[in-house]
Amino acid sequence: MFAAFKDTLYVAFKDTLLQVLIAYFPAFTYHICLMRPERIGRAHVYLFLFSALSLLFCMLFSFMYFPETNLPFDFRLIPFMVGFLYGGYRVGIMLTAMYIIVMLMMHAWHDHYIWWSDSLLYVAPLLFLMLNYFQQSSAPKRILMLMGVASLGMLLHFIIYSLSLWDHHIQMQTHILLFMGMYATVFLCASCAIIYMMEYVREKAFLQQGYQMVWRQYRQEAQKMHQLIDETPLAVLAVDANARITAVNQMMLRMLQQYNPLLTNVDIIGRCYYSFSEEYELLSKDDFMLGRVLSGEPPQSEVIQHFNRKYLVRTASMRNQESGEIVGAVGMAHDITELSQLRAEMGNMERLSLVGQMAASITHEIRNPMAVVRGFIQLMQRKSPEHLNDYYAIVMEELDRANMIINDFLSLAQNRIVEKEFMHLHDIISNISPLLWADANMRGQEIHLQLAEDVPELLINSKEMKQLLLNLARNAMESMEPKGVLTIQTRFHEGVVELIVRDNGLGIPVAVQERMFEPFYTTKAKGTGLGLPLCLSIVERHGGVISIDSEIGRGTTFIVSFQVEANAAYEKCISVVPSPSINDTSGETSRIS
Protein backbone atom coordinates (compact mmCIF):
# COMPACT_ATOMS: atom_id res chain seq x y z
CA MET A 1 0.00 0.00 0.00
CA PHE A 2 2.74 2.46 0.92
CA ALA A 3 4.74 1.50 -2.17
CA ALA A 4 1.70 2.16 -4.39
CA PHE A 5 1.15 5.55 -2.72
CA LYS A 6 4.85 6.38 -3.16
CA ASP A 7 4.72 5.50 -6.82
CA THR A 8 1.57 7.60 -7.24
CA LEU A 9 3.15 10.59 -5.49
CA TYR A 10 6.27 10.30 -7.63
CA VAL A 11 4.26 10.12 -10.86
CA ALA A 12 2.06 13.07 -9.84
CA PHE A 13 4.96 15.40 -9.06
CA LYS A 14 7.15 14.26 -11.92
CA ASP A 15 4.47 14.64 -14.57
CA THR A 16 2.76 17.77 -13.20
CA LEU A 17 5.76 19.91 -12.31
CA LEU A 18 6.43 20.78 -15.96
CA GLN A 19 2.72 21.42 -16.46
CA VAL A 20 2.69 23.91 -13.59
CA LEU A 21 5.65 25.81 -15.03
CA ILE A 22 4.04 25.92 -18.48
CA ALA A 23 0.72 27.08 -17.01
CA TYR A 24 2.51 30.08 -15.49
CA PHE A 25 3.33 31.55 -18.94
CA PRO A 26 0.20 33.75 -19.22
CA ALA A 27 0.63 35.10 -15.69
CA PHE A 28 4.26 36.07 -16.33
CA THR A 29 3.25 37.69 -19.62
CA TYR A 30 0.45 39.62 -17.98
CA HIS A 31 2.87 40.86 -15.33
CA ILE A 32 5.47 41.97 -17.89
CA CYS A 33 2.89 43.81 -20.02
CA LEU A 34 1.09 45.64 -17.24
CA MET A 35 4.30 46.71 -15.54
CA ARG A 36 5.44 48.45 -18.74
CA PRO A 37 3.11 51.38 -19.55
CA GLU A 38 4.16 51.38 -23.21
CA ARG A 39 2.94 47.76 -23.54
CA ILE A 40 -0.45 48.08 -21.86
CA GLY A 41 -2.17 48.80 -25.18
CA ARG A 42 -0.86 45.48 -26.58
CA ALA A 43 -1.42 43.40 -23.42
CA HIS A 44 -4.29 41.38 -24.96
CA VAL A 45 -2.08 40.40 -27.91
CA TYR A 46 0.73 39.13 -25.66
CA LEU A 47 -1.80 37.41 -23.42
CA PHE A 48 -3.28 35.51 -26.38
CA LEU A 49 0.12 34.46 -27.71
CA PHE A 50 1.45 33.15 -24.40
CA SER A 51 -1.87 31.57 -23.42
CA ALA A 52 -1.90 29.76 -26.77
CA LEU A 53 1.71 28.62 -26.31
CA SER A 54 1.01 27.44 -22.76
CA LEU A 55 -2.08 25.59 -23.97
CA LEU A 56 -0.13 23.87 -26.77
CA PHE A 57 2.77 22.87 -24.48
CA CYS A 58 0.37 21.50 -21.88
CA MET A 59 -1.23 19.33 -24.60
CA LEU A 60 2.21 18.33 -25.88
CA PHE A 61 3.49 17.22 -22.45
CA SER A 62 0.27 15.58 -21.30
CA PHE A 63 0.45 12.00 -19.96
CA MET A 64 -1.99 9.06 -19.51
CA TYR A 65 -2.22 7.07 -16.30
CA PHE A 66 -3.97 4.21 -18.18
CA PRO A 67 -3.13 4.38 -21.90
CA GLU A 68 -6.12 2.27 -22.79
CA THR A 69 -8.50 4.98 -21.49
CA ASN A 70 -7.01 7.50 -24.01
CA LEU A 71 -7.76 10.36 -21.57
CA PRO A 72 -4.77 12.70 -20.97
CA PHE A 73 -3.85 14.46 -17.73
CA ASP A 74 -2.57 18.04 -18.11
CA PHE A 75 -3.22 21.65 -17.04
CA ARG A 76 -4.53 22.96 -20.37
CA LEU A 77 -7.65 24.37 -18.71
CA ILE A 78 -5.61 26.91 -16.68
CA PRO A 79 -4.05 28.93 -19.57
CA PHE A 80 -7.31 28.64 -21.54
CA MET A 81 -9.34 29.96 -18.62
CA VAL A 82 -6.86 32.76 -17.77
CA GLY A 83 -6.47 33.93 -21.36
CA PHE A 84 -10.21 33.81 -21.94
CA LEU A 85 -11.38 35.76 -18.87
CA TYR A 86 -8.55 38.32 -18.73
CA GLY A 87 -8.20 38.79 -22.49
CA GLY A 88 -11.87 39.28 -23.37
CA TYR A 89 -14.12 37.99 -26.13
CA ARG A 90 -11.62 38.33 -28.96
CA VAL A 91 -8.90 36.40 -27.12
CA GLY A 92 -11.44 33.81 -25.98
CA ILE A 93 -12.79 33.22 -29.49
CA MET A 94 -9.28 32.94 -30.95
CA LEU A 95 -8.18 30.52 -28.21
CA THR A 96 -11.26 28.35 -28.72
CA ALA A 97 -10.80 28.31 -32.50
CA MET A 98 -7.10 27.47 -32.15
CA TYR A 99 -7.86 24.67 -29.69
CA ILE A 100 -10.43 23.09 -32.01
CA ILE A 101 -8.01 23.28 -34.93
CA VAL A 102 -5.26 21.62 -32.88
CA MET A 103 -7.68 18.91 -31.75
CA LEU A 104 -8.62 18.25 -35.36
CA MET A 105 -4.98 17.96 -36.31
CA MET A 106 -4.12 15.63 -33.42
CA HIS A 107 -7.15 13.29 -33.67
CA ALA A 108 -9.06 11.82 -36.52
CA TRP A 109 -12.59 12.90 -37.34
CA HIS A 110 -13.98 9.47 -36.48
CA ASP A 111 -12.63 9.47 -32.90
CA HIS A 112 -15.79 10.93 -31.34
CA TYR A 113 -14.80 9.71 -27.89
CA ILE A 114 -12.07 12.35 -27.68
CA TRP A 115 -14.54 15.15 -28.36
CA TRP A 116 -17.27 14.31 -25.88
CA SER A 117 -14.77 13.39 -23.17
CA ASP A 118 -12.90 16.76 -23.33
CA SER A 119 -13.97 18.75 -20.25
CA LEU A 120 -12.48 22.00 -21.67
CA LEU A 121 -15.11 22.07 -24.43
CA TYR A 122 -17.83 21.88 -21.76
CA VAL A 123 -16.32 24.76 -19.77
CA ALA A 124 -15.81 27.11 -22.78
CA PRO A 125 -19.55 28.09 -23.13
CA LEU A 126 -19.67 28.80 -19.41
CA LEU A 127 -16.71 31.18 -19.77
CA PHE A 128 -18.51 33.04 -22.57
CA LEU A 129 -21.58 33.49 -20.35
CA MET A 130 -19.73 34.74 -17.28
CA LEU A 131 -17.17 37.00 -19.03
CA ASN A 132 -19.06 40.33 -18.60
CA TYR A 133 -19.88 39.65 -14.97
CA PHE A 134 -16.27 38.58 -14.33
CA GLN A 135 -14.80 41.80 -15.73
CA GLN A 136 -17.17 43.95 -13.65
CA SER A 137 -16.61 42.08 -10.39
CA SER A 138 -14.20 42.82 -7.57
CA ALA A 139 -10.94 40.90 -7.07
CA PRO A 140 -12.27 38.46 -4.41
CA LYS A 141 -15.27 37.58 -6.57
CA ARG A 142 -13.05 37.00 -9.60
CA ILE A 143 -10.82 34.67 -7.59
CA LEU A 144 -13.87 32.69 -6.41
CA MET A 145 -15.27 32.50 -9.94
CA LEU A 146 -11.97 31.26 -11.40
CA MET A 147 -11.52 28.68 -8.66
CA GLY A 148 -15.11 27.56 -9.23
CA VAL A 149 -14.48 27.10 -12.95
CA ALA A 150 -11.22 25.24 -12.24
CA SER A 151 -12.98 22.96 -9.73
CA LEU A 152 -15.83 22.33 -12.16
CA GLY A 153 -13.38 21.46 -14.94
CA MET A 154 -11.47 19.09 -12.66
CA LEU A 155 -14.70 17.47 -11.46
CA LEU A 156 -15.93 16.89 -15.03
CA HIS A 157 -12.57 15.42 -16.00
CA PHE A 158 -12.61 12.97 -13.08
CA ILE A 159 -16.23 11.96 -13.75
CA ILE A 160 -15.44 11.28 -17.41
CA TYR A 161 -12.23 9.45 -16.37
CA SER A 162 -14.15 7.27 -13.90
CA LEU A 163 -16.68 6.37 -16.61
CA SER A 164 -13.81 5.51 -18.93
CA LEU A 165 -12.28 3.19 -16.32
CA TRP A 166 -15.66 1.51 -15.90
CA ASP A 167 -15.94 1.00 -19.68
CA HIS A 168 -12.49 -0.61 -19.77
CA HIS A 169 -13.25 -2.81 -16.76
CA ILE A 170 -10.53 -1.22 -14.64
CA GLN A 171 -11.21 -1.34 -10.92
CA MET A 172 -10.97 1.92 -8.90
CA GLN A 173 -8.13 0.91 -6.61
CA THR A 174 -6.58 2.91 -3.79
CA HIS A 175 -3.51 4.03 -5.72
CA ILE A 176 -5.77 5.38 -8.51
CA LEU A 177 -7.77 7.39 -5.98
CA LEU A 178 -4.56 8.67 -4.41
CA PHE A 179 -3.26 9.73 -7.83
CA MET A 180 -6.50 11.49 -8.70
CA GLY A 181 -6.56 13.23 -5.33
CA MET A 182 -2.93 14.29 -5.62
CA TYR A 183 -3.43 15.51 -9.18
CA ALA A 184 -6.55 17.48 -8.21
CA THR A 185 -4.70 19.06 -5.28
CA VAL A 186 -1.77 20.17 -7.43
CA PHE A 187 -4.11 21.39 -10.14
CA LEU A 188 -6.22 23.47 -7.73
CA CYS A 189 -3.18 24.83 -5.89
CA ALA A 190 -1.54 25.82 -9.17
CA SER A 191 -4.80 27.42 -10.32
CA CYS A 192 -5.12 29.35 -7.07
CA ALA A 193 -1.52 30.56 -7.23
CA ILE A 194 -1.80 31.66 -10.86
CA ILE A 195 -5.15 33.40 -10.29
CA TYR A 196 -3.81 35.17 -7.21
CA MET A 197 -0.76 36.29 -9.17
CA MET A 198 -2.98 37.61 -11.99
CA GLU A 199 -5.09 39.62 -9.55
CA TYR A 200 -2.04 40.89 -7.71
CA VAL A 201 -0.44 42.01 -10.95
CA ARG A 202 -3.69 43.57 -12.13
CA GLU A 203 -4.16 45.52 -8.91
CA LYS A 204 -0.54 46.62 -8.88
CA ALA A 205 -0.79 47.71 -12.52
CA PHE A 206 -3.89 49.78 -11.80
CA LEU A 207 -2.15 51.40 -8.86
CA GLN A 208 0.87 52.13 -11.03
CA GLN A 209 -1.33 53.58 -13.77
CA GLY A 210 -3.12 55.73 -11.22
CA TYR A 211 0.19 56.87 -9.79
CA GLN A 212 1.52 57.69 -13.24
CA MET A 213 -1.67 59.59 -14.09
CA VAL A 214 -1.48 61.59 -10.87
CA TRP A 215 2.21 62.22 -11.50
CA ARG A 216 1.54 63.47 -15.03
CA GLN A 217 -1.24 65.72 -13.76
CA TYR A 218 1.03 66.99 -11.02
CA ARG A 219 3.80 67.73 -13.51
CA GLN A 220 1.37 69.49 -15.84
CA GLU A 221 -0.01 71.60 -13.02
CA ALA A 222 3.50 72.33 -11.76
CA GLN A 223 4.56 73.41 -15.25
CA LYS A 224 1.46 75.58 -15.59
CA MET A 225 2.16 77.17 -12.22
CA HIS A 226 5.80 77.72 -13.16
CA GLN A 227 4.79 79.36 -16.45
CA LEU A 228 2.20 81.46 -14.65
CA ILE A 229 4.76 82.69 -12.13
CA ASP A 230 7.27 83.36 -14.91
CA GLU A 231 4.75 85.37 -16.97
CA THR A 232 3.38 87.39 -14.07
CA PRO A 233 4.52 91.03 -13.96
CA LEU A 234 5.52 90.52 -10.31
CA ALA A 235 9.09 89.66 -9.34
CA VAL A 236 8.82 86.54 -7.13
CA LEU A 237 11.40 84.88 -4.86
CA ALA A 238 10.63 81.92 -2.59
CA VAL A 239 12.65 80.43 0.30
CA ASP A 240 12.22 77.35 2.49
CA ALA A 241 12.04 77.23 6.27
CA ASN A 242 15.86 77.45 6.46
CA ALA A 243 15.89 80.62 4.33
CA ARG A 244 17.38 78.85 1.35
CA ILE A 245 16.16 80.11 -2.01
CA THR A 246 13.92 77.57 -3.74
CA ALA A 247 12.50 79.51 -6.70
CA VAL A 248 12.81 82.76 -8.63
CA ASN A 249 10.78 83.82 -11.66
CA GLN A 250 12.01 85.51 -14.81
CA MET A 251 11.02 89.01 -13.65
CA MET A 252 13.09 88.71 -10.48
CA LEU A 253 15.96 87.22 -12.46
CA ARG A 254 15.93 90.18 -14.89
CA MET A 255 15.95 92.62 -11.99
CA LEU A 256 18.94 90.86 -10.40
CA GLN A 257 20.72 90.73 -13.74
CA GLN A 258 21.01 94.52 -13.55
CA TYR A 259 23.89 93.82 -11.14
CA ASN A 260 25.27 90.71 -12.85
CA PRO A 261 24.18 90.08 -16.47
CA LEU A 262 25.56 86.52 -16.33
CA LEU A 263 23.40 85.51 -13.36
CA THR A 264 21.21 82.43 -13.91
CA ASN A 265 18.74 80.36 -11.89
CA VAL A 266 21.47 77.82 -11.13
CA ASP A 267 23.48 80.54 -9.39
CA ILE A 268 20.54 81.46 -7.16
CA ILE A 269 18.62 78.29 -6.28
CA GLY A 270 19.88 76.65 -3.09
CA ARG A 271 21.78 79.64 -1.73
CA CYS A 272 21.08 81.16 1.68
CA TYR A 273 18.91 84.22 1.25
CA TYR A 274 20.75 86.31 3.86
CA SER A 275 24.21 85.81 2.33
CA PHE A 276 22.82 86.19 -1.20
CA SER A 277 20.98 89.43 -0.43
CA GLU A 278 24.21 91.08 0.79
CA GLU A 279 25.47 91.03 -2.82
CA TYR A 280 22.40 92.76 -4.28
CA GLU A 281 21.12 96.14 -3.19
CA LEU A 282 17.59 95.34 -4.35
CA LEU A 283 17.21 92.47 -1.88
CA SER A 284 18.98 94.23 0.99
CA LYS A 285 16.55 97.14 0.83
CA ASP A 286 13.71 95.02 2.22
CA ASP A 287 15.43 94.86 5.64
CA PHE A 288 15.06 91.07 5.61
CA MET A 289 11.28 91.11 5.64
CA LEU A 290 11.43 87.47 4.53
CA GLY A 291 13.23 86.67 7.78
CA ARG A 292 10.50 88.36 9.79
CA VAL A 293 7.69 86.40 8.18
CA LEU A 294 9.71 83.19 8.57
CA SER A 295 9.78 83.84 12.31
CA GLY A 296 5.98 83.99 12.37
CA GLU A 297 5.23 87.70 11.92
CA PRO A 298 2.26 88.70 9.75
CA PRO A 299 2.78 89.65 6.06
CA GLN A 300 5.00 92.67 5.52
CA SER A 301 4.71 95.44 2.89
CA GLU A 302 7.03 98.27 1.97
CA VAL A 303 7.65 100.69 -0.91
CA ILE A 304 11.30 100.92 -1.99
CA GLN A 305 13.12 103.08 -4.55
CA HIS A 306 15.61 101.34 -6.81
CA PHE A 307 17.24 102.50 -10.06
CA ASN A 308 14.77 105.40 -10.33
CA ARG A 309 11.92 102.89 -10.09
CA LYS A 310 9.43 102.39 -7.29
CA TYR A 311 8.60 98.87 -6.10
CA LEU A 312 5.92 97.65 -3.73
CA VAL A 313 7.55 94.75 -1.87
CA ARG A 314 5.33 92.28 -0.01
CA THR A 315 6.37 89.16 1.87
CA ALA A 316 4.26 86.38 3.39
CA SER A 317 4.92 83.03 5.02
CA MET A 318 3.88 79.70 3.56
CA ARG A 319 2.40 77.20 6.02
CA ASN A 320 1.60 73.49 6.05
CA GLN A 321 -2.17 73.30 5.68
CA GLU A 322 -2.45 70.36 8.09
CA SER A 323 -0.05 71.31 10.87
CA GLY A 324 0.14 75.09 10.38
CA GLU A 325 3.92 74.94 10.54
CA ILE A 326 5.86 77.53 8.55
CA VAL A 327 7.55 75.74 5.66
CA GLY A 328 8.83 78.76 3.74
CA ALA A 329 8.16 82.31 2.64
CA VAL A 330 7.64 84.19 -0.59
CA GLY A 331 8.59 87.75 -1.51
CA MET A 332 7.00 89.71 -4.36
CA ALA A 333 8.03 93.04 -5.85
CA HIS A 334 5.59 95.00 -8.01
CA ASP A 335 6.87 97.85 -10.16
CA ILE A 336 4.51 100.74 -9.32
CA THR A 337 6.46 103.50 -11.06
CA GLU A 338 3.86 104.05 -13.79
CA LEU A 339 1.04 103.72 -11.27
CA SER A 340 2.62 106.41 -9.07
CA GLN A 341 3.10 108.67 -12.07
CA LEU A 342 -0.48 108.06 -13.15
CA ARG A 343 -1.76 108.99 -9.70
CA ALA A 344 0.31 112.14 -9.77
CA GLU A 345 -1.03 112.99 -13.23
CA MET A 346 -4.59 112.34 -12.07
CA GLY A 347 -4.02 114.72 -9.18
CA ASN A 348 -2.69 117.35 -11.56
CA MET A 349 -5.62 116.79 -13.91
CA GLU A 350 -8.08 117.22 -11.06
CA ARG A 351 -6.42 120.48 -10.11
CA LEU A 352 -6.35 121.64 -13.72
CA SER A 353 -9.99 120.67 -14.13
CA LEU A 354 -10.89 122.77 -11.10
CA VAL A 355 -8.85 125.67 -12.47
CA GLY A 356 -10.54 125.23 -15.86
CA GLN A 357 -14.00 125.29 -14.32
CA MET A 358 -13.14 128.44 -12.39
CA ALA A 359 -11.66 130.03 -15.53
CA ALA A 360 -14.75 129.13 -17.53
CA SER A 361 -17.01 130.69 -14.91
CA ILE A 362 -14.87 133.83 -14.74
CA THR A 363 -14.66 134.06 -18.53
CA HIS A 364 -18.41 133.73 -18.84
CA GLU A 365 -18.87 136.60 -16.39
CA ILE A 366 -16.38 138.77 -18.33
CA ARG A 367 -18.55 138.68 -21.44
CA ASN A 368 -21.26 140.85 -19.90
CA PRO A 369 -19.06 143.86 -18.99
CA MET A 370 -17.30 143.51 -22.36
CA ALA A 371 -20.64 143.79 -24.14
CA VAL A 372 -21.39 146.93 -22.12
CA VAL A 373 -17.95 148.39 -22.92
CA ARG A 374 -18.45 147.67 -26.63
CA GLY A 375 -21.84 149.36 -26.61
CA PHE A 376 -20.53 152.52 -24.94
CA ILE A 377 -17.57 152.67 -27.33
CA GLN A 378 -19.99 152.60 -30.25
CA LEU A 379 -21.91 155.53 -28.69
CA MET A 380 -18.69 157.43 -28.06
CA GLN A 381 -17.60 156.85 -31.66
CA ARG A 382 -20.72 158.58 -32.96
CA LYS A 383 -20.00 161.70 -30.88
CA SER A 384 -16.24 161.79 -31.48
CA PRO A 385 -14.38 163.52 -34.31
CA GLU A 386 -13.79 161.46 -37.45
CA HIS A 387 -10.03 161.48 -37.03
CA LEU A 388 -10.51 159.18 -33.98
CA ASN A 389 -12.43 156.52 -35.93
CA ASP A 390 -9.28 154.51 -36.59
CA TYR A 391 -8.62 154.26 -32.85
CA TYR A 392 -12.18 153.16 -32.19
CA ALA A 393 -11.88 150.53 -34.96
CA ILE A 394 -8.78 149.08 -33.31
CA VAL A 395 -10.53 148.94 -29.93
CA MET A 396 -13.62 147.30 -31.48
CA GLU A 397 -11.48 144.76 -33.32
CA GLU A 398 -9.61 143.80 -30.17
CA LEU A 399 -12.86 143.49 -28.25
CA ASP A 400 -14.24 141.21 -30.97
CA ARG A 401 -11.06 139.18 -30.89
CA ALA A 402 -11.30 138.86 -27.10
CA ASN A 403 -14.93 137.78 -27.44
CA MET A 404 -13.94 135.16 -30.04
CA ILE A 405 -11.26 133.79 -27.68
CA ILE A 406 -13.82 133.60 -24.88
CA ASN A 407 -16.28 131.73 -27.11
CA ASP A 408 -13.62 129.22 -28.19
CA PHE A 409 -12.44 128.73 -24.61
CA LEU A 410 -15.99 128.13 -23.36
CA SER A 411 -16.65 125.67 -26.15
CA LEU A 412 -13.46 123.79 -25.22
CA ALA A 413 -13.94 123.92 -21.44
CA GLN A 414 -17.60 122.93 -21.33
CA ASN A 415 -17.98 119.18 -21.81
CA ARG A 416 -21.64 119.57 -22.59
CA ILE A 417 -24.07 117.11 -24.12
CA VAL A 418 -24.98 118.14 -27.66
CA GLU A 419 -28.13 117.27 -29.52
CA LYS A 420 -27.51 115.11 -32.57
CA GLU A 421 -29.55 114.12 -35.57
CA PHE A 422 -29.02 112.04 -38.68
CA MET A 423 -27.52 114.29 -41.32
CA HIS A 424 -25.32 114.06 -44.37
CA LEU A 425 -21.85 115.56 -44.29
CA HIS A 426 -22.42 116.81 -47.82
CA ASP A 427 -25.36 118.94 -46.64
CA ILE A 428 -23.11 120.63 -44.07
CA ILE A 429 -20.42 121.20 -46.71
CA SER A 430 -23.08 122.68 -49.02
CA ASN A 431 -24.33 125.08 -46.32
CA ILE A 432 -20.89 126.34 -45.34
CA SER A 433 -19.39 126.48 -48.84
CA PRO A 434 -20.44 130.14 -49.59
CA LEU A 435 -18.45 131.34 -46.58
CA LEU A 436 -15.46 129.24 -47.66
CA TRP A 437 -15.73 130.60 -51.22
CA ALA A 438 -15.66 134.16 -49.92
CA ASP A 439 -12.53 133.53 -47.82
CA ALA A 440 -10.83 131.76 -50.73
CA ASN A 441 -11.61 134.59 -53.17
CA MET A 442 -10.19 137.18 -50.79
CA ARG A 443 -6.97 135.19 -50.56
CA GLY A 444 -6.77 134.36 -54.28
CA GLN A 445 -7.06 130.62 -53.56
CA GLU A 446 -9.10 127.76 -54.97
CA ILE A 447 -11.31 125.07 -53.40
CA HIS A 448 -11.72 121.59 -54.88
CA LEU A 449 -14.47 119.25 -53.69
CA GLN A 450 -14.16 115.48 -54.04
CA LEU A 451 -17.32 114.04 -52.53
CA ALA A 452 -18.02 110.31 -52.70
CA GLU A 453 -21.48 109.09 -53.67
CA ASP A 454 -21.79 106.20 -51.20
CA VAL A 455 -21.33 108.14 -47.95
CA PRO A 456 -24.16 107.33 -45.48
CA GLU A 457 -25.78 109.70 -43.03
CA LEU A 458 -24.25 110.16 -39.57
CA LEU A 459 -25.65 110.99 -36.15
CA ILE A 460 -24.05 114.43 -35.70
CA ASN A 461 -24.59 117.96 -34.47
CA SER A 462 -24.71 120.27 -37.50
CA LYS A 463 -23.53 123.38 -35.66
CA GLU A 464 -20.43 121.66 -34.30
CA MET A 465 -19.68 120.00 -37.64
CA LYS A 466 -19.82 123.43 -39.33
CA GLN A 467 -17.43 124.81 -36.73
CA LEU A 468 -15.10 121.81 -37.22
CA LEU A 469 -15.04 122.21 -41.00
CA LEU A 470 -14.65 125.98 -40.81
CA ASN A 471 -11.70 125.78 -38.39
CA LEU A 472 -9.87 123.15 -40.47
CA ALA A 473 -10.51 124.99 -43.75
CA ARG A 474 -9.38 128.37 -42.42
CA ASN A 475 -6.25 126.84 -40.88
CA ALA A 476 -5.47 125.32 -44.27
CA MET A 477 -6.06 128.64 -46.07
CA GLU A 478 -3.82 130.53 -43.65
CA SER A 479 -1.00 128.03 -44.25
CA MET A 480 -1.06 128.53 -48.07
CA GLU A 481 0.21 131.27 -50.32
CA PRO A 482 -2.03 132.97 -52.94
CA LYS A 483 -3.10 130.55 -55.70
CA GLY A 484 -3.03 127.72 -53.19
CA VAL A 485 -5.54 124.86 -53.52
CA LEU A 486 -7.74 123.62 -50.67
CA THR A 487 -9.23 120.14 -51.18
CA ILE A 488 -12.24 118.92 -49.20
CA GLN A 489 -12.89 115.22 -49.69
CA THR A 490 -15.28 112.62 -48.29
CA ARG A 491 -14.76 108.88 -48.42
CA PHE A 492 -16.50 105.75 -47.12
CA HIS A 493 -14.84 102.35 -46.80
CA GLU A 494 -14.96 99.42 -44.33
CA GLY A 495 -17.67 101.07 -42.24
CA VAL A 496 -15.72 104.32 -41.76
CA VAL A 497 -16.75 107.76 -43.04
CA GLU A 498 -13.79 110.08 -43.55
CA LEU A 499 -13.74 113.86 -43.94
CA ILE A 500 -10.41 114.94 -45.46
CA VAL A 501 -9.14 118.55 -45.57
CA ARG A 502 -5.93 118.88 -47.60
CA ASP A 503 -3.78 121.92 -48.49
CA ASN A 504 -0.63 122.37 -50.56
CA GLY A 505 1.07 124.75 -48.16
CA LEU A 506 4.51 124.61 -46.59
CA GLY A 507 3.76 121.69 -44.29
CA ILE A 508 4.17 121.37 -40.52
CA PRO A 509 7.37 120.25 -38.72
CA VAL A 510 7.18 117.05 -36.69
CA ALA A 511 7.93 118.87 -33.43
CA VAL A 512 4.95 121.16 -34.00
CA GLN A 513 2.66 118.26 -34.98
CA GLU A 514 3.22 116.63 -31.60
CA ARG A 515 1.80 119.70 -29.79
CA MET A 516 -0.81 120.95 -32.24
CA PHE A 517 -3.77 119.75 -30.19
CA GLU A 518 -2.52 121.20 -26.90
CA PRO A 519 -4.68 124.10 -25.66
CA PHE A 520 -3.10 127.58 -26.05
CA TYR A 521 -0.20 126.24 -28.14
CA THR A 522 0.12 128.22 -31.38
CA THR A 523 2.73 129.28 -33.93
CA LYS A 524 0.69 132.23 -35.24
CA ALA A 525 1.36 135.80 -34.20
CA LYS A 526 -2.28 136.45 -33.33
CA GLY A 527 -3.39 132.85 -32.74
CA THR A 528 -5.15 131.69 -29.60
CA GLY A 529 -4.12 128.02 -29.71
CA LEU A 530 -7.74 126.95 -29.21
CA GLY A 531 -8.84 126.13 -32.77
CA LEU A 532 -7.42 122.61 -33.15
CA PRO A 533 -8.09 121.59 -29.52
CA LEU A 534 -11.69 122.65 -30.13
CA CYS A 535 -11.76 120.50 -33.30
CA LEU A 536 -10.40 117.54 -31.32
CA SER A 537 -13.07 118.05 -28.65
CA ILE A 538 -15.84 118.10 -31.28
CA VAL A 539 -14.56 114.96 -33.00
CA GLU A 540 -14.28 113.07 -29.70
CA ARG A 541 -17.82 114.08 -28.71
CA HIS A 542 -18.97 112.41 -31.93
CA GLY A 543 -16.96 109.24 -31.28
CA GLY A 544 -14.51 109.99 -34.08
CA VAL A 545 -10.76 110.22 -34.54
CA ILE A 546 -8.73 113.04 -36.06
CA SER A 547 -5.25 112.50 -37.48
CA ILE A 548 -2.71 114.61 -39.33
CA ASP A 549 -0.38 113.81 -42.19
CA SER A 550 2.08 116.54 -43.06
CA GLU A 551 5.46 116.84 -44.72
CA ILE A 552 7.59 119.94 -45.18
CA GLY A 553 7.13 121.33 -48.69
CA ARG A 554 4.24 118.99 -49.61
CA GLY A 555 1.33 120.36 -47.56
CA THR A 556 -0.85 119.06 -44.77
CA THR A 557 -3.81 116.69 -44.61
CA PHE A 558 -6.30 116.43 -41.73
CA ILE A 559 -8.36 113.22 -41.70
CA VAL A 560 -11.48 113.02 -39.51
CA SER A 561 -12.86 109.45 -39.25
CA PHE A 562 -16.29 108.44 -37.96
CA GLN A 563 -17.05 104.76 -37.30
CA VAL A 564 -20.51 103.82 -38.55
CA GLU A 565 -22.19 101.73 -35.86
CA ALA A 566 -23.68 98.50 -37.18
CA ASN A 567 -26.71 98.04 -34.92
CA ALA A 568 -30.24 97.31 -36.03
CA ALA A 569 -31.77 100.58 -34.82
CA TYR A 570 -29.07 102.58 -36.57
CA GLU A 571 -29.25 100.61 -39.81
CA LYS A 572 -32.96 101.45 -40.16
CA CYS A 573 -32.12 105.14 -40.09
CA ILE A 574 -29.21 104.95 -42.55
CA SER A 575 -29.98 105.92 -46.10
CA VAL A 576 -27.25 105.94 -48.69
CA VAL A 577 -28.07 108.83 -50.98
CA PRO A 578 -26.21 110.51 -53.85
CA SER A 579 -24.02 113.45 -52.95
CA PRO A 580 -25.79 116.83 -52.90
CA SER A 581 -25.09 118.81 -56.03
CA ILE A 582 -22.56 121.56 -55.55
CA ASN A 583 -21.64 122.82 -59.00
CA ASP A 584 -21.34 119.24 -60.32
CA THR A 585 -19.76 116.98 -57.70
CA SER A 586 -20.80 113.60 -59.10
CA GLY A 587 -17.64 111.86 -58.08
CA GLU A 588 -15.47 114.21 -60.16
CA THR A 589 -13.25 117.03 -58.94
CA SER A 590 -14.98 120.42 -59.25
CA ARG A 591 -13.20 123.75 -59.12
CA ILE A 592 -14.53 126.69 -57.13
CA SER A 593 -12.71 129.94 -57.53
First-to-last CA distance: 143 Å
Uncertain residue segments: 566-593
Q: Major beta sheet, specifics?
A: 6 strands, mixed
Q: What's the tally of helices?
A: 21
The chain-level mean pLDDT equals 76
Q: Total number of β-strand segments?
A: 13
Considering DSSP H and I runs of 4 or more, what fraction of the residues is helical? 55-70%
Trace the largest sheet across and list its strands.
11-12-10-9-7-13
- Approximate shape: elongated
Strand content: 5-15%
Short description:
This protein is an alpha+beta fold. The protein is built from 21 helices and 13 strands. The protein has a six-stranded mixed beta sheet, covered by helices on one side.
Q: Any overview of this molecule?
A:
- With 593 residues, the chain is an alpha+beta fold.
- Helices cover 58% and strands 15% of the residues.
- The chain is built from 21 helices and 13 strands.
- The strands form 3 sheets. Strands 11-12-10-9-7-13 form a 6-stranded mixed beta sheet, with helices on one face.
- β3 and β4 form a beta hairpin.
- The longest helix is centred in the middle third of the chain and has 58 residues.
- The N and C termini lie far apart (143 Å).
- The C terminus is likely disordered.
- It catalyses: ATP + protein L-histidine = ADP + protein N-phospho-L-histidine.
- This is histidine kinase.
- Its EC number is 2.7.13.3.
